[in-house]
């Protein structure tokens, strides 16, 4: 994979994903090295000044009024990192920590933090060696940055803490430094603070979620198209001129995707006359899918806007301003990220909810338009997909609980100096669970719709047929009951890998 250059400018969302998820190597640009060296000299000048400067010659947070003598400042920075590495709970996923570390390097490279260039270089060496500090689930309030997660990462640079190699082996911080090819860092003025004061964990998880949701929102349209066919519905409501009457851009894309996937459907053509006479309209979960999926797309567009702004930011406190002054600020507050992370948790929960409703229609002979109860081979003897819908329902219920916003909560900390916090890290953690949940819910809908289409017979649309063909490589078609969990997991893997989207797009044309 191509090397990602980290400089004084902004990384892209794709840069973050490629490094975090696919281990793309990074390099620090010469411009960034020069900029860091230049602003570091300003910090060193201020360190010699008898006037206290926050973060350089003072304590931190509620202890900022204490002036720290020069001979104690290295200990000050080391103590800061050690004391803030206070996380607890399960280990955070490797890709999240890689994203967090890349984004901290990116902020260091802006030159606004005042660290020595070699500090950023050591971070880059750790990342390129595939070594990941061990970070725990709980510890960040999303204000003053993701303090505890970043401190656990910074501790490894000091030769302390714990880390994992690329193959998952747990090692000490000292071993991590050695494997990455550098001696543990001795921190100087301001450097400990610069390593832990950022929104990098929230932002990294937002970038990863955006990458996932881009794929899943297209998968939703494919699942809708398959359910439309499996339920003998009508595609007339997806016509472009009807979408233009309500000109939300995401809605038009969603409707166009459904039409592409079902193009050439003999199933829908054969059902059209009976539908016009006896059905008239599909249920909201089918008919209104473009309005829901379109709203998700438009919400995602706003999240991308926020993420790109944050990727262009230099988040630290204090910061070395462009005119050379070192000054306190509030840019570490995670509110902008927390809001969109919560918003994405809401819309992913709603996508899962409407998907589960479509699945449920297949299982009820009063609503599935001529199919067996629960799509069972022999209803009564067989239960078909009865409990697959239970699994969906359990996941959707969990996702709805995760949709409760974290950003409306705040618990004061640091002796009331930090009296309003964003809880953005918590918003990011529950969004990750919702992304996983949506993946699983959509997999069950696709598995169920494919079974219904096979049981109904007839020629499906070009996109639908391609998806079923891919699915049937690992999941058998309808028949007597069998161990269902492996079928669900195989389908989950196809959704998560993007194989479902690729199959449909290769057959039906590019999908938005």
From TrEMBL:
One BP annotation, GO: L-histidine catabolic process to glutamate and formate
Pfam families: Lyase_aromatic (PF00221)
GO MF terms, alphabetically ordered: histidine ammonia-lyase activity
Enzyme type, top EC level: lyase
Pathway: Amino-acid degradation; L-histidine degradation into L-glutamate; N-formimidoyl-L-glutamate from L-histidine: step 1/3
Protein name: Histidine ammonia-lyase
Record CDD domains: PAL-HAL
Chief place where the protein resides: cytoplasm
Native source organism of the sequence: Corynebacterium glucuronolyticum
InterPro entries xrefs: Aromatic_Lyase (IPR001106), Fumarase/histidase_N (IPR024083), HutH (IPR005921), L-Aspartase-like (IPR008948), Phe/His_NH3-lyase_AS (IPR022313)
Gene3D superfamilies reported for this sequence: Fumarase/aspartase (Central domain) (1.20.200.10), Fumarase/aspartase (N-terminal domain) (1.10.275.10)
Catalytic activity line of the entry: L-histidine = trans-urocanate + NH4(+)
Keyword vocabulary terms for this entry: Histidine metabolism, Lyase
Subcellular location as annotated: Cytoplasm
Family named by the database record: Belongs to the PAL/histidase family.
GO cellular component: cytoplasm
Known EC number: 4.3.1.3
């Amino acid at each position: 994979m191509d090397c990602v250059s980290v400089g004084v400018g902004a990384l892209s969302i794709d840069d973050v994903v490629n490094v975090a998820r696919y281990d793309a190597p990074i390099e620090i640009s010469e411009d960034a090295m020069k900029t860091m060296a230049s602003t570091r000299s300003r910090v060193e000048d201020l360190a010699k000044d008898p006037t206290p400067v926050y973060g350089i010659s003072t304590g931190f947070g509620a202890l900022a009024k204490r002036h720290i003598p020069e001979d104690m400042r290295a200990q000050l920075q080391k103590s800061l990192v050690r004391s803030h590495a206070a996380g607890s709970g399960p280990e955070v996923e490797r890709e999240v920590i890689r994203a967090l570390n890349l984004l901290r390097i990116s902020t260091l490279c802006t030159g606004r933090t005042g660290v020595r260039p070699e500090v950023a270089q050591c971070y880059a060496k750790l990342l390129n060696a595939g070594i990941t500090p061990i970070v725990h689930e709980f510890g960040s309030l999303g204000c003053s940055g993701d303090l505890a997660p970043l401190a656990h990462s910074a501790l490894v640079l000091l030769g302390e803490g714990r880390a994992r190699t690329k193959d998952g082996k747990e090692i000490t911080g000292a071993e991590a430094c050695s494997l990455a090819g550098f001696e543990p860092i001795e921190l100087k003025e301001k450097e400990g603070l610069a390593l832990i004061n950022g929104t990098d964990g929230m932002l990294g998880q937002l970038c990863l979620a955006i990458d996932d949701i881009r794929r899943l929102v297209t998968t939703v349209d494919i699942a809708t198209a398959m359910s439309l066919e499996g339920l003998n519905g009508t595609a007339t409501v997806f016509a472009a001129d009807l979408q233009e009457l309500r000109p939300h851009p995401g809605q038009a894309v969603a409707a166009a995707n459904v039409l592409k996937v079902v193009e050439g459907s003999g199933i829908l053509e054969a059902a059209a006359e009976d539908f016009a006479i006896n059905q008239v309209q599909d249920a909201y979960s089918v008919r209104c899918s473009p309005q829901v999926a379109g709203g998700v797309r438009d919400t995602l567009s706003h999240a991308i806007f926020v993420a790109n702004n944050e990727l262009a930011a230099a988040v630290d406190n204090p910061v070395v301003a462009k005119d050379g002054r070192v000054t306190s600020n509030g840019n570490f507050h995670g509110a902008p990220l927390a809001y969109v992370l919560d918003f994405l948790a809401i819309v992913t929960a709603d996508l899962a909810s409407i998907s589960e409703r479509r699945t449920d229609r297949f299982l009820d002979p009063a609503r599935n338009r001529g199919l067996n109860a629960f799509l069972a081979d022999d209803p009564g003897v067989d239960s078909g997909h009865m409990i697959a819908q239970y699994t969906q329902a359990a996941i959707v219920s969990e996702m709805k609980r995760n949709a409760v916003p974290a950003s409306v909560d705040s618990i004061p900390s640091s002796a009331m100096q930090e009296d309003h916090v964003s809880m953005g890290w918590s918003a990011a953690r529950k969004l990750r669970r919702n992304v996983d949940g949506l993946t699983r819910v959509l997999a069950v809908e696709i598995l169920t719709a494919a079974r219904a289409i096979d049981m109904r017979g007839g020629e499906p649309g070009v996109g639908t047929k391609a998806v079923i063909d891919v699915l049937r490589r690992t999941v058998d078609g309808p028949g007597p009951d069998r161990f269902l969990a492996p079928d669900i997991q195989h389908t989950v893997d196809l959704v998560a890998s993007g194989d479902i989207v690729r199959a449909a797009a290769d057959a039906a044309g590019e999908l938005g």
